[in-house]
From TrEMBL:
Keywords noted in UniProt: Glutamine amidotransferase, Hydrolase, Lyase, Pyridoxal phosphate
Reactions it catalyzes: L-glutamine + H2O = L-glutamate + NH4(+); aldehydo-D-ribose 5-phosphate + D-glyceraldehyde 3-phosphate + L-glutamine = pyridoxal 5'-phosphate + L-glutamate + phosphate + 3 H2O + H(+)
Gene3D superfamilies noted in UniProt: 3.40.50.880
Highest taxon, organism lineage: Bacteria
Record-given protein name: Pyridoxal 5'-phosphate synthase subunit PdxT
GO cellular component terms given for this protein: cytosol; glutaminase complex
PROSITE patterns: GATASE_COBBQ (PS51274), GATASE_TYPE_1 (PS51273), PDXT_SNO_1 (PS01236), PDXT_SNO_2 (PS51130)
UniProt pathway annotation: Cofactor biosynthesis; pyridoxal 5'-phosphate biosynthesis
Source organism of the structure: Amycolatopsis suaedae
Protein role: Catalyzes the hydrolysis of glutamine to glutamate and ammonia as part of the biosynthesis of pyridoxal 5'-phosphate. The resulting ammonia molecule is channeled to the active site of PdxS.
Gene: pdxT
Annotated GO biological process: L-glutamine catabolic process; pyridoxal phosphate biosynthetic process; pyridoxine metabolic process
Length: 199
């Protein structure tokens, strides 16, 4: 079974651990560089990206994590995790760190003009058996994608359709929280990516 870490500095850690185990992985909370070196893939949970960014630095995980992602380690970011994985975040603090695992530009708190949170059923490419019930909590959207980025899911907004799930190689990200719904299909997709990368 693949060993998948969940970055455990802040945010929705336990929910991801539970979903990964249901999806057939061995899941471990990660707080130290030595723990990071022992996993086959990593989930970056939702929470608060500014806080997580500075915790990554104080726990000395920023550089090792950048290096592992650049070397091809599979990663899955939900919400704040998506923001951290992006190459650029708009409406973020200027000193926020980016892990640069995805050639995307995200906008923080993008849906928040009328409601902070909402739920919607979204079609998710690569996830079979019907739409995924997506929970958005002060969520970002993806404003630009590079040529190597696959768009997996979008939702209609007032002005336009907004991209809310992407994949580039072994890096997956959702603007919403698949760990909160009891539906482990997105985690299964990620565990499959981890398995394929380690064989
Ligand atoms: N708004 C948060 C941020 O900017 C993300 C919210 C979430 O992860 N649910 O980091």
């Amino acid at each position: 079974e693949p060993v998948v870490g969940v970055l455990a500095l802040q945010g929705a850690v336990r929910e991801h651990v539970a979903m990964l185990e249901r999806a057939g992985a061995v899941a471990r909370p990660i707080r130290r560089p030595a723990e990071l070196s022992e996993v086959d893939g990593l989930v970056l949970p939702g929470g608060e990206s500014t806080a997580m960014s500075s915790l990554l630095e104080s726990f000395e995980l920023l550089q090792p994590l950048r290096e592992r992602i650049a070397a091809g380690m599979p990663a899955f970011g939900s919400c704040a995790g998506m923001i951290l994985l992006a190459r650029q975040a708009l409406d973020a603090r200027p000193d926020q760190h980016q892990l640069d695992g995805l050639d995307i530009v995200v906008r923080r708190n993008a849906f928040g003009r009328q409601v902070d949170s909402f739920e919607e059923d979204v079609d998710f490419a690569g996830v079979h058996g019907g739409p995924v019930h997506a929970v958005f909590i002060r969520a970002p959207w993806v404003e630009k994608v590079g040529a190597d980025v696959e768009v997996l899911a979008s939702v209609p907004d007032e002005q336009a359709t907004r991209i809310v799930a992407v994949r580039q190689g072994a890096v997956l990200a959702t603007a919403f929280h698949p760990e909160l719904t009891g539906d482990e299909r997105v985690h299964r997709l990620f565990v499959r990516i981890v398995r394929d990368a380690s064989t």
